Amino acid sequence: MLRVIHSVLRSGTPHRDPEADHEALMVSRNEPRRIGMLQSCGYLSAPSGTTAPSEAAAMH
Predict the structure, then answer these.
(1) Would the pLDDT of 19 be above 60?
(2) Which candidate, 27, 20, 53, places its Cα nearest to that of 38?
(3) What whole-number distance in Å separates Cα of residue 23 and Cα of residue 2?
(4) What is the separation, in whole angstroms, between the first and last Cα of the chain?
(5) CA 44, 49, 50: angle at the middle one, nearest 5?
(6) Is pLDDT larger for residue 4 or for residue 33?
(7) Which pLDDT does position 39 carry in this prediction?
(8) Which pLDDT belongs to residue 44?
């Protein structure tokens, strides 16, 4: 870890792990939140077996 810190400080550039797929990590982390927002705004229908927020509000 000290080698990484030293190289970052010496070069002045951020560390990028060549083996990590950062884009896939971001997509998998943000996908559920984005799908939920699209469903709550009515752009996507809710998956079968669940009720959309507007349907749940209408039931109460």
Answers:
(1) yes
(2) 53
(3) 26
(4) 55
(5) 55
(6) 33
(7) 92
(8) 86
Encoded amino acid at 25, one letter: L
The two tokens of residue 24 are 């896939």
Please, which residues have CB within 8 angstroms of residue 41's CB and are 6 or more apart in sequence? Answer: none
- Find the helix or strand (DSSP H, E) in which 10 lies: helix 2-11
Residue of 50, 29, 49 whose CA lies nearest to 40: 50
User: Does residue 20 surpass a pLDDT of 90?
Assistant: no
What is the C-alpha to C-alpha distance for residues 41 and 37, in angstroms, rounded to an integer? 6
Cβ atoms of 5 and 12 within 8 Å: the answer is no
Residue 47: phi and psi, rounded to 5, are: -60, 155
What is the tens place of the pLDDT at every residue in 3-16? 888 988 899 888 77
